[in-house]
C-alpha cells in the first residue's frame, strides 16, 4: 500500500455548528463560572471565600447526585441509545475505510464516483440520524410520561389497598409493618399524590386505622407491662381455688381459661416472642410519631392507661384473694389476709417494674423519653395510697386537709380518679371490692414492713428520697395514727384503772386485772414499735406515758391503802407534816428501817427467782432472825406497850390480800416489761438509745435527758419499789400484830380463869391464820416464807423482852405465861409446819422462874449463858426478884444480885 509513495490522508472533519440553546446555555454557564471566580478572587474575608467554596462543593455534589439519579432512572434508554450509536458508528467506519487507500486509487473515475456516492450517503445518514434523534427524544419523553402515569396508578392502587392491609396487619399484631404502611401512605398522600383529587375519603380511612393501630399498640403494651405481670401471680392462686368457686366470678373464670391455654401469660411472659412484641411495638410508635411532641403525648397517654390498668388490676387482685380465702358478707377477712394482699401487690409491682425497666430502655432509645420507670412508680404509689387509705379507715376528703398542713404543700393524697372521691353508690361498690378486711388504723401494723420495702424500692428506682409514698405514710403516722393511738391508749388505760377496777382481785388469779390490761396496752405498743421501726421513738414515748400513768395510779392505790394523819407533835396548820397511821406503812416509808430490813438475807431470798434459791445455814438463819428482832423491838418495843392501838394495824384482810396481789402483779408486770424491751430488734434498741426523753412524775419530779430504755427501766424500777414496799409492809404488818397482841400480856390480870391461854394469844393465832389463808393463794412460796419465817424468834424475843415490864408473878401466873408461850408455838407451828424451836427458848426462860429462886438462877447462869444474852438474864433475874415475896420487899436485893450476875458473866468472857 505504500509502494506508490502515497501516505494515507485522514478524512476531513467538518465543524458542526452548536445549537442556539446549547450555545446560550454554555454562555450562561461561562458567565456564572466567571462570576464565581470573580467572587472568590475579590472576597476580602477568608470566611466568605470558605462559605462560597462550601456552597460550590455542595452544589457540585447535588448536581452529581442528580445526574446519577437521572442516569439510574433512564438506564434502559441510555443503553439503547449507546447500542444504536455503536451500530451506526461501525457502519460509518466500514463505508469510510476507502478513504484510507492510497491517493492514486482515488484518481480512478470509478473510485471518485464511489467516493462521491459514499459522501452523499453519509450526508443522507447524517440527516436521518438527526431526524431519528429528535424522534427518539420525543419518544423518550412520551415513555417517561407513560412510566410516571403507570407508577402513579400503581401507587394509587397500593393506597387504595392500604386500609385493608393495615387492618390485616393489626389483626396479626404485626405492628411494625402496619406502621411502615401507614407512614408510606401518609408520604404518598402528602407528597407525590398531594395534587390528586378525590383522596380525602381514603386519607380519612387511613387515619382511622392509624388511631386503631395506636390504640392496639398501647393496649398491647399495657397488657404486657401491667396485666401479664399482675396475672402471673394471680394464676398461682387460681390453681388452688376449687373450680365451683372460680365460676362464681367472670374474671376468675377468664384467669382459669388462661392458665389452661398454651398462650398463658406465665408461659409467654419471659419468652423471646414477648420481648419481640415489645420491641416491635416501640419501633412502630417511633415510626408513627415523627415529632417530639407527638411522641411525648403518646408516652404520657400510655402511662395514664397503665395507671388506670393498675387500679383495675388491684381491684381484680382483691376479688381473687377474696374468692380464694372464702371472704364474703358473712365471713369477713382479717389482718392476715391484708398482709397476704400487700405481699402479693408488692410482688406484682416488682414484676411490673422489671417489665417497665426493659420497656424504658427501648423508649429512651427510640422515643427519647427516660421517665418510663419513674412514671410507673408514681402511678404505683398513687394506687398503693388508695389501697392503704381504704384499709386504714382514712377519709381521703377530710384527712387530706389535716395531713397536708398548708395549702401550698405538695399533695400526698390523689383520689380524684377513684370511686372514693364522691359519696355515691359507685363509691360503696368500689370500696366493697377493694377492701379485704375491716378498715382500721391499726392495720398499719401488719402492712408497714411491706410498705417500707416498697418505699425503698420506689426511692431506688425513682432516685428520689423521700418518695411520695413515704411522705404520705409519714404524714399519716405522725399526724393521724400517733394521735389516734395516744387517744385510744388514754381511753383504754382510764378504763383499766377506773374506780375499783385497779384494785379488784380476780377470783382465780394472782394478778390484778388492771395490770393485765395495762400490759396488753404495752404489748400493743411493743407490736407497733416492731412493725413501725421508723417511728419507734414516737411509740416508745407512748410506752413511757402508759408506764408513768400506771405508776401514778399504783402510787395512789398504795397511798389510799396506807392513809396518813397529821403529826400530833407538830403545830396544827394546813402545811403540817403527815405521817402514816399504820405502823407497817410508816416503817416501810422510813428509809433507815426499810434499808436495814432489806439488807437481811431473807429479803434477798424472797426477791430471788425460785429457780435459784439462796442457801442459808441454820446459824445464818439464827443470826438473821436475831438481828431482825433487835431492829423491830428496838423501834417498837416501848411504843407497843404504851401507845399501840388497833388503828395502827391493818385489820381488813382484803387490804392484806390486795397488798399481796399488788406485789405479785407489779413484780410480774415489771418482768414482762423488761422482756418486751429485751425482745426489741437491735436496730430499734440502737435508735432508742440515742433518743432522749423527759418524764414528769406524780410528785412533780422531772427526769430529763434520759434515753428511752433508761426511762422505761426507771419506770419499771419505781413500780418494783411499790411492789417491794407491799411485800415489806406485809412482813412488818404481821409482826406488828405480834407486838399488838403480846404486849398486853405484861399487865397484871386475874389468873382464876379456866382458859388455858389468854385471849390475846387466841387473837394472835386467829390473825396469823387469816394472814396465811389470804396470802397462800397469792404469794409465791418463797415470799410466803419471808412473811412468816422468823415469827417464832420474834415472839420468843417479845415474851422475854416484855418480861421486864411484868409485875410480880405468882406460881399460877408463871404457869400461865408458859402456857401462853406454848399456845403461840402451837398456833404458829400449824401454819409453818415447823416446831418453831425458837419459842422453846422462851418457855425455858419462864420455866427457870418455876423451878429456881433468884439465887438458884445465879447458880445455873454458867450453863444457861449460851442460851440467853446478858440482857435477857438480867430481865430473868429482875423478874425472879420481883416475884419473890421476901426479896421483892428487901432494899438492894436486886442490885446486889445483878452485881453478882455481872461478875459471873464477866468471868465467862
Automatic annotation (TrEMBL):
GO terms for biological process: chemical synaptic transmission; exocytosis; Golgi to plasma membrane transport; protein targeting to membrane; protein transport; vesicle docking involved in exocytosis; vesicle tethering involved in exocytosis. Residues 1-30 are annotated as: Disordered. Signal peptide: none annotated. The keyword Metal-binding does not apply. Residues 110-168 form the Exocyst complex component Sec8 N-terminal domain. Keywords: Exocytosis, Protein transport, Transport. InterPro entries: Sec8/EXOC4, Sec8_exocyst_N. This is Exocyst complex component Sec8.
Amino acid at each position: 500500500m505504500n509502494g506508490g509513495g502515497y501516505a494515507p490522508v485522514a478524512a476531513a472533519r467538518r465543524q458542526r455548528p452548536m445549537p442556539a440553546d446549547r450555545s446560550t446555555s454554555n454562555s450562561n454557564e461561562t458567565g456564572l463560572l466567571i462570576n464565581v471566580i470573580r467572587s472568590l478572587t475579590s472576597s476580602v474575608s477568608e470566611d466568605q471565600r470558605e462559605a462560597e467554596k462550601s456552597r460550590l462543593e455542595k452544589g457540585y455534589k447535588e448536581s452529581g447526585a442528580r445526574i446519577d439519579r437521572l442516569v439510574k432512572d433512564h438506564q434502559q434508554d441510555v443503553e439503547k441509545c449507546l447500542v444504536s450509536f455503536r451500530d451506526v458508528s461501525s457502519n460509518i467506519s466500514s463505508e469510510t475505510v476507502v478513504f484510507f487507500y492510497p491517493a492514486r486509487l482515488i484518481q480512478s473515475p470509478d473510485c471518485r464516483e464511489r467516493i462521491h456516492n459514499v459522501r452523499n450517503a453519509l450526508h443522507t445518514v447524517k440527516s436521518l440520524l438527526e431526524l431519528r434523534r429528535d424522534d427518539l427524544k420525543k419518544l423518550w419523553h412520551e415513555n417517561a410520561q407513560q412510566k410516571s402515569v403507570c407508577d402513579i396508578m400503581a401507587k394509587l392502587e397500593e393506597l387504595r389497598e392500604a386500609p385493608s392491609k393495615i387492618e390485616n396487619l393489626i389483626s396479626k399484631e404485626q405492628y411494625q409493618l402496619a406502621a411502615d404502611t401507614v407512614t408510606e401512605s401518609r408520604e404518598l398522600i402528602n407528597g407525590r399524590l398531594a395534587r390528586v383529587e378525590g383522596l380525602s375519603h381514603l386519607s380519612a380511612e387511613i387515619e382511622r386505622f392509624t388511631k386503631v393501630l395506636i390504640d392496639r399498640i398501647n393496649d398491647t403494651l399495657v397488657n404486657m407491662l401491667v396485666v401479664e405481670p399482675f396475672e402471673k401471680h394471680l394464676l398461682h392462686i387460681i390453681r388452688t381455688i376449687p373450680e365451683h368457686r372460680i365460676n362464681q366470678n367472670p374474671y376468675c373464670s377468664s384467669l382459669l381459661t388462661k392458665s389452661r391455654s398454651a398462650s398463658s401469660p406465665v408461659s409467654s411472659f419471659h419468652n423471646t416472642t414477648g420481648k419481640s412484641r415489645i420491641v416491635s411495638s416501640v419501633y412502630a410508635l417511633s415510626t408513627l410519631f415523627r415529632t417530639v411532641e407527638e411522641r411525648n403525648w403518646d408516652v404520657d397517654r400510655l402511662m395514664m392507661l397503665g395507671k388506670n390498668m393498675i387500679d383495675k388490676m388491684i381491684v381484680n387482685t382483691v376479688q381473687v384473694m377474696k374468692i380464694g380465702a372464702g371472704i364474703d358478707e358473712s365471713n369477713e377477712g382479717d389482718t392476715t389476709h391484708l398482709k397476704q394482699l400487700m405481699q402479693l401487690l408488692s410482688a406484682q409491682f416488682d414484676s411490673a417494674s422489671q417489665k417497665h425497666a426493659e420497656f424504658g430502655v427501648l423508649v429512651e432509645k427510640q422515643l427519647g423519653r427516660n421517665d418510663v420507670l419513674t412514671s410507673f412508680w408514681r402511678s404505683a404509689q398513687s394506687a398503693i395510697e388508695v389501697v392503704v387509705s381504704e384499709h386504714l379507715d382514712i377519709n381521703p376528703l377530710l384527712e387530706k386537709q389535716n395531713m397536708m398542713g398548708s395549702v401550698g404543700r405538695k399533695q400526698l393524697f390523689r383520689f380524684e380518679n377513684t370511686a372514693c372521691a364522691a359519696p355515691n353508690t359507685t363509691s360503696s361498690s368500689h370500696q366493697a371490692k377493694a377492701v379485704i378486711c375491716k378498715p382500721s388504723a391499726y392495720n398499719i401494723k401488719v402492712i408497714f414492713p411491706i410498705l417500707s420495702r416498697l418505699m425503698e424500692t420506689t426511692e431506688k428506682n425513682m432516685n428520689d428520697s423521700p418518695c411520695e409514698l413515704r411522705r404520705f405514710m409519714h404524714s399519716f403516722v405522725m399526724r393521724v395514727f400517733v394521735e389516734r393511738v395516744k387517744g385510744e391508749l388514754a381511753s383504754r388505760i382510764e378504763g383499766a384503772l377506773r374506780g375499783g377496777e385497779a384494785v379488784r382481785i380476780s377470783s382465780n388469779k394472782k394478778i390484778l386485772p388492771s395490770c393485765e390490761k395495762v400490759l396488753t396496752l404495752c404489748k400493743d405498743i411493743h407490736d407497733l414499735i416492731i412493725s413501725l421501726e421508723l417511728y419507734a421513738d414516737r411509740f416508745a414515748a407512748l410506752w413511757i406515758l402508759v408506764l408513768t400513768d400506771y405508776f401514778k395510779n399504783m402510787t395512789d392505790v398504795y397511798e389510799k391503802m396506807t392513809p396518813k394523819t397529821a403529826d400530833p407533835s407538830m403545830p396544827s396548820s394546813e402545811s403540817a407534816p403527815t405521817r402514816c397511821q399504820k405502823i407497817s406503812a410508816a416503817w416501810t416509808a422510813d428509809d433507815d428501817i426499810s434499808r436495814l430490813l432489806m439488807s437481811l438475807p431473807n429479803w434477798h431470798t424472797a426477791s430471788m427467782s425460785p429457780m435459784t434459791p439462796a442457801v442459808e445455814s441454820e446459824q445464818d438463819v439464827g443470826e438473821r432472825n436475831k438481828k431482825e428482832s433487835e431492829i423491830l423491838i428496838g423501834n417498837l418495843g416501848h411504843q407497843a406497850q404504851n401507845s399501840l392501838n388497833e388503828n395502827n394495824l391493818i385489820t381488813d384482810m382484803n387490804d392484806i390480800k390486795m397488798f399481796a396481789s399488788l406485789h405479785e402483779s407489779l413484780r410480774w408486770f415489771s418482768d414482762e416489761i423488761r422482756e418486751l424491751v429485751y425482745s426489741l430488734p437491735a436496730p430499734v434498741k440502737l435508735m432508742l438509745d440515742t433518743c432522749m426523753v423527759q418524764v414528769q412524775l406524780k410528785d412533780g419530779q422531772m427526769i430529763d435527758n434520759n434515753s428511752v430504755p433508761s426511762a422505761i427501766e426507771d419506770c419499771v424500777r419505781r413500780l418494783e419499789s411499790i411492789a417491794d414496799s407491799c411485800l415489806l409492809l406485809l412482813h412488818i404488818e404481821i409482826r406488828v400484830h405480834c407486838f399488838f397482841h403480846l404486849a398486853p400480856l405484861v399487865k397484871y390480870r386475874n389468873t382464876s380463869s379456866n382458859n388455858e391461854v389468854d385471849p390475846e394469844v387466841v387473837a394472835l393465832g386467829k390473825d396469823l391464820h387469816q394472814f396465811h389463808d389470804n396470802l397462800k393463794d397469792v404469794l409465791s412460796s418463797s415470799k410466803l416464807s419471808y412473811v412468816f419465817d422468823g415469827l417464832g424468834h420474834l415472839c420468843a424475843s417479845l415474851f422475854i423482852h416484855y418480861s421486864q415490864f411484868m409485875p410480880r408473878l405468882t406460881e399460877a401466873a408463871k404457869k400461865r405465861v408458859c402456857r401462853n408461850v406454848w399456845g403461840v408455838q402451837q398456833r404458829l407451828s400449824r401454819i409453818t409446819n415447823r416446831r418453831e424451836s425458837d419459842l422453846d427458848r422462851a418457855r425455858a426462860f419462864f420455866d427457870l422462874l418455876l423451878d429456881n429462886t433468884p439465887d438458884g438462877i445465879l447458880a445455873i447462869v454458867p450453863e444457861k449463858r449460851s442460851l440467853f444474852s446478858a440482857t435477857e438474864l438480867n430481865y430473868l433475874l429482875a423478874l425472879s426478884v420481883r416475884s419473890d415475896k421476901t426479896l421483892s420487899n428487901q432494899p438492894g436485893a436486886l442490885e446486889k444480885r445483878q452485881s453478882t450476875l455481872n461478875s459471873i458473866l464477866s468471868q465467862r468472857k
